[in-house]
Amino acid sequence: MRLASQHMLGLRRRNHTRGCLLDGVELRLRRAVRHAGMSSRAGHPSGVDPMMDHATRVGNRLLAALPQADFALLAPHLRKIVIQRDSMLVRSGDRIEHLLFPLSGAIATIMELSNGQTVATTIVGHEGAVGLTSALGGSRSPVTAVVRISGAALQISTAQFLTAQNCSPAIAAMVQVFTRSLLTQLQHVAACNALHSVEARLARWLLHIHDRANGSDLLPLTQETLSELLGVRRTTVTHVVSTMRASRALKSNRRGQLEIDRPRLEAVACECYKILSRRIDRIVSHGTVGRANRLQRGAPPARMAVE
Fold first, then answer.
1. How many other C-beta atoms lie within 10 A of the C-beta of residue 160?
2. Does residue 5 belong to any structural domain of this protein?
3. 260-273, pLDDT tens digit by residue?
């Protein structure tokens, strides 16, 4: 009886540290996941947990790093959708009804001013998410999100994600990792906009988009889109594109499409591109994997360090 009481006390403490009391549905889900994992592992030649193996194949780096049981809280509610170029996923000020975890493609987050001027703040691909700021307490989007390269994404309702987050320190840690990544991007973009030329900034944005364009050197971007990204007039974009064509960083400027020469484009871009790319990769890779490993061992998540 004493051993049984100690065991039950340990379970209560563990549930308390998880941040929620699991209801019957969630408990049944976890038992089913554990049972499926145990029976599958027994007959799996590589010993790879099938649920975690699935998580590594979903294509989104944030979701792929979640431990098995935590990913299982989200998995039943995730729906795969196609995101089409130029489609607006959410407008600034709109209520965030859904979160998107891109699997492919590129999404620009745009800051819109009251006078109609716009400027890009981030480019999001398979390393991030759209609408995840709602997990920090905001119910409305501070930015407009527009698809720039078509692709696919996993969609989940905000309510379902928040329910899972309240039951999972690993998902809460994932939100921290994304927040740190987002703040790093915003800091660099602010400095870049203030200190570097329009040509260097355009090269940086094109490289960020190309990184998420599935290897294609042909980017479906109009001069109007470039003007929106850079926060400058169309005449300025026309001049800069002409200069970049002369240096052959841009091979061609067809109607609605830009063909890039990546090595030459990297030579034109400011240092922000490489620095930012390395830092984001390090934050996402080390942050998600490290937190997942700590949580699987039963250790509390580490405090978010300042870059």
1. 16
2. no
3. 999 999 999 999 99
| 73 inside domain | yes
Distance CA(4)–CA(154), nearest Å, equals 42
- Enclosing domain of residue 149: 57-193+273-296
Same domain assignment for residues 167 and 222 = no
**In sequence order, what are the residues at sequence separation of 6 or more whose Cβ sits closer than 8 angstroms to the Cβ of residue 147?**
83, 84, 85, 86, 87, 88, 89, 105, 106, 107
Are 131 and 237 found together in one domain?
Answer: no
For residue 57, is pLDDT > 90? Answer: no
pLDDT band with cut points at 50, 70 and 90 for residue 294: low
- As a whole number of angstroms, the distance between CA 161 and CA 96 comes to 12
Q: Which domain CATH number covers 284?
A: 2.60.120.10
Look at the chain and report how many structural domains it folds into: 2
The mean pLDDT value for 66-81 works out to 94
Lookup: tokens for 115: 């006078």
pLDDT tens-digit series, residues 90-106: 999 999 999 999 999 99
Q: Are residues 150 and 229 in the same domain?
A: no
Mean pLDDT within 54-83: 87
pLDDT at residue 56, rounded to an integer: 46
**What are residue 135's phi and psi, to 5 degrees?**
-75, -10
Between these two residues, 237 and 27, which has the higher pLDDT value?
237
DSSP string, 231-272: T--HHHHHHHHHHHHHTTSEEEEETTEEEE-HHHHHHHS-TH
Residues 286 and 141 in one domain: yes
Does residue 83 sit in the same domain as residue 185?
yes
Q: Strands of the chain (E only): list them.
A: 79-83, 88-90, 98-102, 106-112, 118-124, 144-149, 151-157, 218-219, 250-254, 257-260
Q: What is the mean pLDDT of residues 243-266?
A: 91
Distance CA 116, CA 124 (A): 23
